[in-house]
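During the no-cost extension, the postdoctoral fellow (Dr. R.K.) reprocessed legacy sequence entries with the updated structure-token encoder. One reprocessed record is reproduced below for audit purposes.
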Amino acid sequence: MMGWFKKLGPGIMFAGAAIGVSHLVQSTRAGADFGFGLIWALLLINLIKYPFFAFGVHYTSRTGQDLLTAFNKMGRWVLMVYFILTLCTMFTFQTAVTIVTAGIATSLTGIGTPVVWAGLILLACFLILIRGRFSVLDQVMKYVVLALTLTTVLALIFAWFNTASRPSWHQVIPNSTVGISFLIAFMGWMPAPLDLAIWQSLWAVEKKQLNPELGERQVRWDFNMGYATTIIIGLSFILLGGLVMYGQGQEFSNSGAIFANQLINMYTDSLGQWSKAFIGVAAFTTMFSTSLSTLDGSPRVMAKTSSLLFAPGYQINYLAWLVILVIGSVLIYLGLTDQMGTLITVGTVLSFISAPFYALIIYRVVTGPSLPKEHHPGLWVKIFSLLAIALLIGFSLWYLTTL
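Re-encoded structure tokens follow.
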């Protein structure tokens, strides 16, 4: 049993990075504003994005190389576009998850301030990463994801049997500008931005070095377990938001601390004070896992990208990028503490609009010369992937025409 648990790795880290703002904040808001009406969007976007996340795992397991190496073979322009996109989003992403994590910690403990907690959270994640880099992250994330899954599912079970009225299962498609904007933002980070496939490919290479005996079947199973976990948690938070908050007539604050208080208080008001521990632990564990994995993922891919793009004298290593990300996130946090909603919206929309680019280049990697033809996806997988790309482009154009 422990041998099986030990082999879990990149798929679980994928879940830890994915299950965060998209689930706790956006999924809860979807439930609060639309009841159970946006479950279709959650299931559809998970289905559309699945092949591209899976392609990254497939490519790495077959070649032993990460996706950035494959992008470099396609042309330096691909890496440069990726470098610029990541540089534009990494600070917003990290700051957004830090704001939410700090707000929940403040609300849950009742001590300190969000600024103090933000500093402590970033410091804790920083120390974990410089202490053991991947090996520590690999071990910590398994227990974090297990804890957040159990606490979230337990919270949903308690909520289901302790609420008298439930929203309708009727599915809805927003038709207002505000509703469409929320839908695109909701789908942008659900289950995660598509560039997380690149993070996972680097994690998979590291995991392979720690456990050389891992085969493709084990790697695929690990990824599918992580992906299924993100879907279960996303559904759980939509259902929780619908059960507890739908029809309450309250607006969410853009302040991370106030939002956290609203979130936890709405649950405890409806379910009782006993639920605070379940909701609080589930929420904090969710966001801490995201903070930890994103603080590793962005510096890891930026270090690799700079090593491929620039001459030795101009390269920036992992530790330097880690410090840059922490400092940049702190500065943005201090300036935008009360703009959590704006940060999340900007980040999620940028992720959704850039999704077709990532989908196209990842598809090109697994259908091009970088991968031997015998390992290329089958015909039906290719057809479905092209359909998914068309849908991503269509959703992006739909959003842009409503601005």
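The chain has 15 helices and no strands. The chain has a mean pLDDT of 81. The remaining legacy entries will be reprocessed before the final report is submitted.
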